[in-house]
Amino acid sequence: MTKGPQTAPNQVKAARFMRLVLVLWSCLLVACAPALPLAVSKNVVDIDDGLGPRNVVSPQAPLRPNDQIAADFMDLEFRMESGQPLPILTRFEGPITVTMTGPVPEDAEADLTALLTRLRNEAGLDVFVVASPAAITIQFASRAELQRLEPAASCFVAPNASSLTEYRAKRGTAALDWRGLTHRERMAIFVPYDTSPQEVRDCLHEEMAQALGPLNDQYRLPDSVFNDDNFQSVLTEFDMLMLRLHYAPDLANGMSRAEVAARVPGLVAALNPGGAYPGGWVRPDTPRAWTDAVDAALGPRGPEAARLPAARRMLTIAQTQGWTDNRLGFAHFALGRLLAPDDPAAAVRSYTTAARVYATLPDDGVHLSHALMQLAALALSDGRVQDAANLSDQALPLAVRAHNAALQASLQLIKAEALALMGRDTEAAALRLDSLDAARYGFGSDQSVQARQAEIASLALRRAEGG
């Protein structure tokens, strides 16, 4: 859940500043217009090179030792993203009620119902929908209205409020400061109604998780929505474990870090018996310099000329730190994104390296699917239509498993264009038709769907016209 600069420090948990990953891969389809030299085809991921879906680790449970899970929990609970400490644990007491207000989008009720069902079944929370008033109020408003309040966020959560009117009245006051909470009674989640159903769903998952539980994010977590890279868009098994720990009976409102730390190892052992093994998954903290480099490379603000040097800093820091995890992959991914307009051959190399890193993650293939989609788009732009089709085939089941309809539809459309260039027009037309349901959920309006279709078709067209 990426947060941008806020009106007042720590007063609002603002999520998804322009949604990094969606910005990355949607922009690439424009940025990769320059044709790739044919000589770079050797850099494309080999379909039999260990990057297929069958080789991606399945996260049946959080795949790390319990001592690392305990450390992750403590870091998520007792720090803000700014690095400032939180003095005590806070949570709701008793049943947790939820309501939606404003112009509720058509799919939001079903998506909220599905989310609350998962929270009851997987996190053990007593959470349910009621009419107003409720402990957690989800208010829908226009994107423009929300961004006037939090320009860098597409959705956000705030404490001690139940409406935008109340939030406005309390801005700049201690009432909205998370560090001053002793317990949680009322939370407001603000979500745009004029966006795609998938974006609404993702906001519900991410903001509900932080309204209920931990407030921090960690770049080192590949299998969690509590991560600023935003690859994960729905709550994972790890996230459910974090929430179950947050509401464990042995913990209570007002406990200090030391008090919680004394109890967490035993709680984790009881809730995750499969993690009772030493070592094997050590992820050190992320230095502030790397986080700053991410913001400079990919954030909504800052000069364009500074983006590529910042991405190179990301990679240098990752290599210097000795990382082999998702942060190293993200550095290569970001570098590929920014190299694509002017050096597509180098972009292919960066995305290929990112894919190799991502193939090792316990994330159900979410990160890998994004890297493969970028490579498929570049292959289509280069006229390597069989590579584009093969890479799309690799990534598609991973995108479906990640419940990422926008990514799914993009992959289907890339493959459809590749099939058309092979002269397989009937199959291409059928695949475009099959993509419509996912595209409407992922992109929203018919106009947005048509724009994405045209954008992907233009890759093949530019190649056919000689770049």
Short descriptors:
single chain, 467 residues, alpha/beta, Serine Threonine Protein Phosphatase 5, Tetratricopeptide repeat, Collagenase (Catalytic Domain), 2 domains, six-stranded mixed sheet, 18 helices, 6 strands, globular, disordered N terminus
Describe it for me?
It is built from 18 helices and 6 strands. By secondary structure, the chain is α/β, with parallel strands linked by helices. The protein folds into 2 domains: 32-59 and 287-464, Tetratricopeptide repeat domain (Serine Threonine Protein Phosphatase 5, Tetratricopeptide repeat, Alpha Horseshoe); 66-275, 3-Layer(aba) Sandwich (Collagenase (Catalytic Domain)), CATH 3.40.390.10. Strand 2, helix 3 and strand 3 form a beta-alpha-beta unit.
Write the layout of secondary structure elements.
Layout: E1 13-15, H1 20-31, H2 66-77, E2 96-101, H3 108-123, E3 127-129, E4 136-141, H4 143-149, E5 155-159, H5 164-170, E6 187-192, H6 197-212, H7 237-246, H8 257-271, H9 288-298, H10 307-321, H11 326-339, H12 344-358, H13 366-382, H14 385-401, H15 405-421, H16 425-434, H17 436-443, H18 446-464
Parallel strand pairs: 2-3, 2-4, 4-6
Antiparallel strand pairs: 1-5, 5-6
* CATH architecture type of the largest domain: 3-Layer(aba) Sandwich
DSSP strand tally = 6
Q: Biggest sheet: strands side by side, in what order?
A: 1-5-6-4-2-3
User: What does the largest sheet look like?
Assistant: 6 strands, mixed
> What separation lies between the terminal Cα atoms?
37 Å
Uncertain stretches of 5 or more adjacent residues: 1-11, 14-59
Coarse morphology: globular
Structural class: alpha/beta
Q: How many distinct domains?
A: 2
CATH superfamily of the largest domain: Collagenase (Catalytic Domain)
The ordered H/E elements are: EHHEHEEHEHEHHHHHHHHHHHHH
Count of alpha and pi helical runs: 18
Q: Would you state the CATH class of the largest domain?
A: Alpha Beta
Fraction of residues in helix: 40-55%
Average of pLDDT: 86
Radius of gyration: 22 Å
What's the CATH topology name of the largest domain?
Answer: Collagenase (Catalytic Domain)
Residue share in β-strands: 5-15%
